[in-house]
Amino acid sequence: MQVRDYLIRRLLLLPFIMLGVSIVVFTLTRFTGSPIGIYATPNMTPAELAVLEARYLLDQPIPVQYAAWLGGLLQGDLGWSGVSVAPVTAIIGSKITATLELAIAAGLIAILGGIALGTIAGVRRNKAPDHAARLFSILGASTPTFWFGLLLLVPFYLWLDWFPLGRSTAIIFDSIAHPTGLYTLDAVLAGSPTALLDAIRHLILPAVVLAFGAMAIIVRMMRSSMVEAMSEEYVDAARSKGLAESIVIKRHARRNALVPTTTVIGLSFGFLLQGSVAVELIFRWPGLGQWVTSAILAGDQATIMSYVLVTAVIFMSVNLAVDIAYAYLDRRVVLG
Amino acid sequence: MTTLNRSQETSKRASVARESALSVKWARRREVAQEVFRNPLTVLGLIIIGLFFLMALAAPLLTEANTPDPYQSPRDWSNISVPPGEAGHVLGTDATGGDVLYGIIWGSRLSLQLSLTVVGFTLVFGTIVGSIAAMRGGRLDNLLMRVVDVFLSIPELIFALAIAAVLGPSFRNIILALAAVFWVKYARIVRGEIIRIKQAEYVAAAKVTGDSTWNIYRKDVLPNAVSPLVVQATLDMGNVVLIGATLSFIGLAQAGLTEWGAMVSAGQSGLLAGEWWLSTFAGLAIVLWALAFNLVGDGLRDVLDPKTEGR
Amino acid sequence: MARSDDWLLRVDDLSVHFESSKGVAHAVDHVSFDIYPHETLALVGETGCGKSVTARSILRLVPEPPGSYASGSISLRNGDGSVTEILTATERTVRSIRGDRISMIFQDPGKALNPGLTIGRQLAEVFGEHRMSMILGNAGFDPEKPSRTATKIVQQRAGLLERGVYRLTHLRAPKALQKSIDDSVMEALADTGIPNPRKMLGSYPHELSGGMKQRVMIAQALACDPDLLIADEPTTALDVTIQARILDLIHEMQQRRGMAILYITHDLSLVRQFADRVAVMYAGRLAEIGPSAEVLASPQHPYTQGLLAAIPRPATPRGQLAAIPGTVPQLIDPPAQCHFASRCSFAAAACHEVTPQLLTIAEKRDVSCHRFDTASRIGVSPQDMPSAATLGGVASS
Questions:
Q1: Contact at CB, C106 and A244, closer than 8 angstroms
Q2: Are B166 and A28 in contact (CB < 8 Å)?
């Protein structure tokens, strides 16, 4: 019950926090030279600009401006993206799905790989696999994602030409329909092996690079919870029933060690979101990260502002989902 | 008569408890230091940090500072894109003839400046905010923690990126942006620790002595909240440079700056032509810096926080 | 040594060592004893004396680094008269013994049951491991030709996809399998007096009381009718009121099933009530072993004497609890001497130089104490020997 109350409190607070985030973003927009820049499209006449200024009450005190800005936001006006030469709302959808596809792929690698490596490290504590895992962990926490990306780019793209840059080969991409916006999924749905292969070939390298940092966190957590689980009495009790060691590790120790690891998964998603900025830049992946980096260089405020808002919403949602999942798991595993 | 004696006694007992807690604390500090030095990895980290600090501080001695801006590599226009070891450039030169080694050395100064400033500020500011929230409690606490929650809803890099973009690309703005973002972590930690400590007995005993809240805070509460702060600050010395380098890499620092992230970025185009040295060495510097602080931070955590299962 | 050949389990010269940063600890040091069918043998001693390690060695549960079986053997007699050497047998053989011929119940049922699995699943594991033919047979399968997927399902090793496919292709079979498993589990639970076994199938350990959890553990341990039940301090973690009920349950089950019980405990009153024989351990070695009534009435080893004297009785005047002076010695690289010598009121020079052997002083009574030995046999001069003692005459301290 205590946990449920906590979750309900979180849910109730959510709109307030989002409001707070909007205030922060709004404050940032007032720091720029001209707040009207968010909405102004090139080639606007002074008359049109004046209309905009009136609509967004730019001659009024700040709180009023905020209300106007927020109102516009809620009605779907996120401004004009100079970098993409279109209203933000028109193109942000495809950016989001591109980044999500990358983040999900990287997340899967990080979670599956991290759990596997962490389990082995925890079971073979203080032996070779454990030392390797800990080396991996600390390198993952110390290596800048952008540098790691370049490090892998040179051999795999430059020398071996195994993996191309970007997200897709245009011809193949255009040959199938895109109901979900996730290239890999769309390829499967369209039943096109060529498209699927194309999607995967482009996805692998950036996903692996992105996964590195997140995987390091997960390995570390999984290792320590496995070490703890393996020393629990129920593991010995399971052995005393005659079960094979692999079953003891998988069904008894690991299952319980996974519970505290879910808390880290939310944390590592933040890592993935942040890492996507550099990864998308380096691998020319057409997602939110690449979008915002070009926006920075061009001074495109609408893009930057929308980027912060969208990532905050995604981040908060994922964290809440992870907390709910953890609460559900923990209810069963209550330490009695 | 009896009530006076009772409170006198409690007062005496409280100060005795405080005294013994204090002496335990100093003995404990020495124990901790010994424990920390016993771990070879931690010692390795400390050595690397020491070397970086020396390099940063001795930069004007190791190389001749460039004029007018020492943080721009001196351009050797007759030797552009030269591989390491040639023409007197130990680590080679970049596409404008800038000496890579010079960049690494002066870059360490920038890293030192960045990390010390940001961590110093955020540690102090975060501690203040967290302390006020935890000691006062009530509506102030609620308000401050909501602010913290809002800040925490935006991933650090992204938040700092937005701030730095808005302020304009410069190294100084990177420092400001990171400072504005990182303090919340410390506020959260401090508040959590203080709330935990407030429930301990010796604080109740101290309160009975009628000591001012400030004194109780200073003598009983704060010293015991220090451990997780020290660990986090150490780790952040590394993290700040990592994130700062990423921001420079994206382009939020001045052009040509001898900042490691900016150097990696400048070396990108060279990579395709096989000129690996700029990006590689600059990147290695970042990795070593972060690795060193991670090793020390981990070592400290193993010693100070008994909950985490280390060895 | 007083031993006959109709033993069920023979522990012979068992030594278990543990590597630690301070050296090699001799947790169990040349311990020998037999367990006979249907009997209850209590293994008593204070914390750290090696009784738990000895018990776990029987099932080869000691983790092999840092532990190692430095000497000795543990032999289990099979139904056909052959003998299985547990310490040298293959992993598969040992696994077939665990849970089937020898079972173990643990001290804290809250910790010994997996918090993340239902009771039903945990008990089902035992049946899946050791009673596959029976389960399959009861579900209508031919146990001679088991379907691979069916066996995997019973052992809970079939993946989600596999099970789904199987469910689609085999109509009623999956339900029959589950019913067969559930029936066996419920029967095992009901046998220990658990009310509403069906509800228990889907319950999690944290939903049960301490006493109920221990009942479940007992049900699990006895599910396959073992010949030997090892009970490692089964009531220490329970409320006093529940303790008696659990002990009664264990012994009721013994009456019905006829298994032998190895009782690990530090509580001598339990020994008096339930054990046929008792073995006293001190610092990794056996001090004394014999029928419990006799040992308790006239203990021969100075340590046992001290233990019994230390039990507070209503007549003991206040403030006068007898304690054995001194502390338990280090187990790291122990010198050749009697471990109890420094605390023993009878100790003499020989006691500090020669390790005592386990000697038979009467039928089925063994003691390891130089007081029952001869100077010539040990190889010391007579003045180095402690005052001699014989069974029946407890020398004054």
A1: no
A2: yes
